[in-house]
Amino acid sequence: AQELGKSADTKVTVEKKWFETLSLRGYMQVRYNRLLETNPDLGCEQCDKSWGDNNGLFIRRGRLVFSGNVHERIYIYVQPDFASSASTTSNNFLQIRDAYFDLAFDSKKEYRLRVGQSKVPYGFENMQSSQNRLTLDRNDALNSAVVNERDLGLFFYWAPKEKRDLFAKLVKDGLKGSGDYGVFGFGIYNGQTANRTEANDSQHVIARVSYPFEFKNGQIFEAGIQGYTGKYVLPSVTSTVIVNSDKEYLDERVAASFVLYPQPFGLQAEYNIGTGPEFNKLNNTIEQKSLHGGYIQAFYNLKFEEQIVLPFVKYQIYRGGKKHELDARSYEVNDLEIGIEYQPFKNFEVVADYTISKRRYEDAVKLNNLQEGNLLRLQLQVNF
Amino acid sequence: AQELGKSADTKVTVEKKWFETLSLRGYMQVRYNRLLETNPDLGCEQCDKSWGDNNGLFIRRGRLVFSGNVHERIYIYVQPDFASSASTTSNNFLQIRDAYFDLAFDSKKEYRLRVGQSKVPYGFENMQSSQNRLTLDRNDALNSAVVNERDLGLFFYWAPKEKRDLFAKLVKDGLKGSGDYGVFGFGIYNGQTANRTEANDSQHVIARVSYPFEFKNGQIFEAGIQGYTGKYVLPSVTSTVIVNSDKEYLDERVAASFVLYPQPFGLQAEYNIGTGPEFNKLNNTIEQKSLHGGYIQAFYNLKFEEQIVLPFVKYQIYRGGKKHELDARSYEVNDLEIGIEYQPFKNFEVVADYTISKRRYEDAVKLNNLQEGNLLRLQLQVNF
Amino acid sequence: AQELGKSADTKVTVEKKWFETLSLRGYMQVRYNRLLETNPDLGCEQCDKSWGDNNGLFIRRGRLVFSGNVHERIYIYVQPDFASSASTTSNNFLQIRDAYFDLAFDSKKEYRLRVGQSKVPYGFENMQSSQNRLTLDRNDALNSAVVNERDLGLFFYWAPKEKRDLFAKLVKDGLKGSGDYGVFGFGIYNGQTANRTEANDSQHVIARVSYPFEFKNGQIFEAGIQGYTGKYVLPSVTSTVIVNSDKEYLDERVAASFVLYPQPFGLQAEYNIGTGPEFNKLNNTIEQKSLHGGYIQAFYNLKFEEQIVLPFVKYQIYRGGKKHELDARSYEVNDLEIGIEYQPFKNFEVVADYTISKRRYEDAVKLNNLQEGNLLRLQLQVNF
Q1: Closest chain A CA to residue C379
Q2: Which CATH number characterizes residue C172's domain?
Q3: Which 8-state DSSP code applies to residue B235?
Q4: Are A138 and A131 in contact (CB under 8 A)?
Q5: 3-state secondary structure of B74
Q6: How many domains does chain A have?
Q7: I want to staple B337 with a disulfide (CB 3.0 to 4.6 A). Which of A49, B24, B314, C132 is the partner?
Q8: Is the ipTM of this complex over 0.85?
Q9: pLDDT digits (tens, 9 = 90+) for B243-283
Q10: A171 CA: distance to closest CA in chain C (Å)
């Protein structure tokens, strides 16, 4: 705009203003999980701390995203969450989810190195933003690999230009895409997950391939495979439990992902197997054990002018330990969710998710704990 | 600006830039409370943690406000405070005060639902921003209903367009208005107050009516009435104190508010009565007891071109428990404040507030504690 | 831009948009300290918590700076760090580093009062931003005077217009300047350092003179002297240690600083002497003791078109207590650093710093603790 009135051949170097380089956006989710609740003792630590007894309205996520292409080779992304707890009683502090920069090796940004705290490229649903996900929480099976989905590391991503454009389009067009984590990804990271202090001398290593196929009829299908290995140090163990002397266990998984993008019918399935620490109540010991689980989700994308309605159904299972929780808590999960997302306009969404849940979760404090129950979960989300 | 040079009848859809939709503003208050202090043992936990012994300069509030009409029906408001403590020794973390969105039901936004953490509409002074208040702290009587003034809930507000404009004008013109919390407000909220985890299964319920009358001579008078009820769970109790088995007490109040806006003479008075938990030192028990108290404040609005001077005097009393404090601490408050606010220009303010205070505040640790004293309180405030 | 098409003599008062008044910028540093490490027990609490055993990748600093001239007399500066810990296990919370405003007494802003939390003007390297410093951490000797370099106070600065322009130019031109802390500075501050609660009734007092000389050949040389005095209350003392009954000690230092700015050869040296608390292992007592130390650094500024390379060497010593650490830990430091900073373009920097370190640091828990070792330290920094 500064160049108006000048002849076209005058050379003017206009330095970009800060607000043209950096931008701010965000979203917030407010929930209530107590309607039609049949069992107030049924909880899910990994999902949402406001299930069950003595809970009410809850801000599940509040995000501010500062990002921008600050140089033709450098992209920065800093995302604080404003619904993080600094202790069990004091909530809603600002804590980082993402804080990374991408260093591109070529002008088309097909080859990039991501440095800092960012998502560990393990699974499709883990990569997909909670802003776009249909169900209120991620599946136990793959999300228990990397709680909060992130870690501090160096990640290399490669994708050809046309696939990068496709990854962007799958989000922009409301097709519930994952964003661009490359067709090929490879990384090393601390392994104790986001915002936790590194606890050993070894790094986790991960690799992923995920390829979106475009068919002539316009349908898009993505298939991916990913795996990681590393050594994990347990963060919280009851004092009476028998545990490896350094609390260190092998943490190794491989997963397959399949996605049919919703034009209008969508289908999504993932499964993973692996090994990790798990509490055994029979001998009060945290053992190295195998684990497995996954989910399948079907959904439908209905548009009425500006309004969008997405009914969905999801079934998930998980059998194994959860390394991030007390005593690498032992889990047996069978959950069925039936729900609907309604977007009256792009800045606002309502989700109703009826959950039929059967969960055994046991540690040294809760030795025999099988919980079954149903609940209607409601979420209001604002996007800005 | 992008349309310059095009003919007027060319239709151009210009998507708004992020910085045209969202905006950032804020303020900061730096205080010193030790001048002319006659009693270093006199404190006020609810007011300002830097009264008395071993205190010095103090950042009382630091606020960044991210807000905007992100859609014709959606307004978002995210306000972190940057002077919040994560523990008794580690200060100046960023913690949310407000994080809400307004969903308007009509194009004039006369009917709105506010979702998230926001101010509980109880009292005029509680609604008025600290950026605009004359005295350094809010009155004990009404503020002890909702510490930090906020909670997580759903609030419905209604006000006709002309009253909405008036509420906005009362702030913009420096008349120390409260902002727009509707002529009528109704809400449900968790009840444990801002940033605290919900602790029982019941919600608080509140209703409020506040109407500003405009007289022919230009004077504006506002009268309001408000009341709430709910069950509150005590957050901190000395182990030896006798308390209800679930620490739950009835928490119920009603208040009346009167404001004559300062053109140039202003007058403000509020009073509330109710019931809540209160420590009884005679039997070492936290009992359900009645409470009452309020304040009256007179002030004058002097303008010398850009400069503004506002002398004020305020008298307040309170007799009852404070549910948020240790053992629902028992209070008897009689305070007189005489002060002046000086704004040399709109971005900067100085307040001097001479406080003559008589406070009995007692819990299981401080059984007999009547403190009397005077102090001169100083505040520098920057608005940006 | 709004005035286009209007005749030049039409008077239009255009109120500035928020984004023209306020701006956002920042930087982030990601480190790895474990390459070529010869002694995993060698640590440096004041420098970087990721030295040695059980450490990996680490975000050392992440900064967002909100600043602006919000009025012709008022400048605000709010800088949260997004790599702050709220406890030993929970990292990456947002916590304030700077939160201040400058109130100018004249239109040229030669006389300013800085109010809030800001850098205490003690030493050149302490004033210089970590965004610009060559070595990965500040020297122990002067930085142990004010950990995190900041405190809550009132600081008066004076510098003539041409020196203010020079201070700005020394940063903008990549000459590793300190920024503008005046030719003369004077201040009072709480004395417990940034983000810590004041712990006694007395303030620290500081004064500083620093003058940059410009020579005819273009070389610029700056010399400074500074000193402070106050009483400091120890924040953490082992229960068995003998300590002053109020944990209060005299805290008093004076320092000299010399800088030859790198055109292309740079030289920097500082030294300080003083007194403060220090742990004495012979009698298990924290005593009032003298302290001294400083550093000398030589460096070279090489430019290849857009690229910049800066090799450097630094030697430092320190002998004394560190008041901020457990038991006012006793220190004997001898460190040599040889390194290089490489900026391929202005938004990105790589530093390699080979450190040859010999450190004795002892408190009541570690009574005999001399650690020697070498390590290669790597840092990637992004500026935005």
Answers
A1: A115
A2: 2.40.160.10
A3: S
A4: no
A5: strand
A6: 1
A7: B314
A8: yes
A9: 998 999 999 999 999 999 999 999 999 999 999 999 999 99
A10: 26
